Amino acid sequence: MGEFDLIATYFKRPVRQAVLGVGDDCALLQPTPGTQLAISSDMLVEGRHFLSTVSPERLGHKALAVNLSDLAACGATPRAFTLALALPRVDAAWLAGFSKGLLALADAHGCELIGGDTTQGPLNICITVLGDVPVMNGKSQALLRSGAQVGDDIYVSGNLGDARLALEVFRGHQQVPASVFEQARLRMEQPTPRVALGQALRGIASAAIDVSDGFLGDLLHVLQASQVGARIDTDIATNLIAVRAGSTWASAGFDPKMDDARALRWVLAGGDDYELVFTAAAADRDQVAQAAAQSATVVTRVGTIEAAPGIRLMDGHGKSVSGHFPSFDHFQS
Amino acid sequence: MGEFDLIATYFKRPVRQAVLGVGDDCALLQPTPGTQLAISSDMLVEGRHFLSTVSPERLGHKALAVNLSDLAACGATPRAFTLALALPRVDAAWLAGFSKGLLALADAHGCELIGGDTTQGPLNICITVLGDVPVMNGKSQALLRSGAQVGDDIYVSGNLGDARLALEVFRGHQQVPASVFEQARLRMEQPTPRVALGQALRGIASAAIDVSDGFLGDLLHVLQASQVGARIDTDIATNLIAVRAGSTWASAGFDPKMDDARALRWVLAGGDDYELVFTAAAADRDQVAQAAAQSATVVTRVGTIEAAPGIRLMDGHGKSVSGHFPSFDHFQS
Question: Residue A320 and which of A77, A265, A284, B69 are 20 to 30 A apart at CA?
Fold first, then answer.
């Protein structure tokens, strides 16, 4: 099967929203009146962003999910995406699974595949997403990193740390029961982009980012862009790891006393979570709760924006917590 | 140097056109009133799209050029692009050269780098370009592949075949004097996207495509999309190879009689030319000439659109020419 048959078989579908989709030199998209275009690109490389053990279907999901997560962090409504794919060889089973997972998530978000490229080479997946952000009274409703104010609450959506737990099991550094591993592995391999929450937070959140490299590292981008600092409650943060909930933690073989530090490390610096970290004025707590309810997404208040630069970790009793929490860097970890 | 320093050092520049550029979750672009957005992605892999011998500066140029060529084939005005880059390691000299060549071409076309991704992995360059296409009286001015009509002239811009000649020299299949090689090599490593010509042809050309895989193969996409066929004059085509001009051919050691067939093969199926192939009504020859003059681009009339499917090659005397001209396929060649 050649390049053009491959595209036709697995990736070409009837055009819906776009003026022109896959199959010409360019795709054509009609801008939505009263909006700006939000654009983001993410490239996924084996061993860096996914393991060779991942199923093609989950990988297809994840490749788009990490891009939709960027749109979510911007408060954008997904519209379309391009896919550039380098494959070592044409593998029909792999392509069928990959395109199934990819297009299922695309359909769930009304985000249309409008073009791209396929070539032979070491496996590499590059997706560029396009979304709409409303402009109201001349002001963009995009959620930026630069808007956090001293006194704002700091929130995080969903759970943190489970993807890292799964990675540690894969690496042989951690052992857990199969059911716990499957739960964590699903979070690593098939993350949920918080698209509805991002849109619901337009006009409410003062700043937002998605957690890809690790909570502290990504929060730091917000703090630097906003020229502020933060205090984080580690007792709340430690509980953000999903597999810690209920009796799972003990049944998974974790000693609640011994393993708190490990859990905290996975939560604060695990990476690959694709949750939203955002800030909002303390006066807007009801609105944040409404946005969370409206988007059926749990959000947790984990700290406060302060004037002093940097991040201070404190437990529930106000006692300083120290530790080494290196954030994920695709050239350094 | 980590990922964020790398971006800041080599790729982050003050935002000009875009509302928001490199450094947030998404870039923001304000659509131009009365236009549609043209979008295209191209991925470049070493050994497939460039050789390891290419200078980083020329590679930076080429990576954007092949994408701008898609906008040109659509008649779009370049606006912005994203760059996703997988690098085996952070190499300052390579990055300095690559970004220099990339951004010089971007500046020449007013096409702004607004975002992207960098990661560690086998060298892979993925660019997505965005351009504007005017909509006039509700009709998109985009040049599509599907508009060729029986009786239309077929044109090609610039020269064809020189990139392939250079590749054959690199492969050791051909020997030419150094000056000829340098001329051909420049065409292979630093192609000129025909952006101004594409824009000038809006409202004149009935169909267009850029030549990346090879003239015949790419023309065939136009013919299939338009449900027509074509006749090509091989005497004219043979002369499209630039290094054939004047006395160069003989001085390069080519025997005019013996090597015509080889030249024709490079012209018709060489690939990597990034010229425009387009069709226009015979009544519009003056308008085509004006568009060519206005964009300072040579165009050559090489054939005619016919009703019968497929491509017929004929010499200047109307005699049928046969030969095997496989087009480049990134999974088959």
Answer: A284
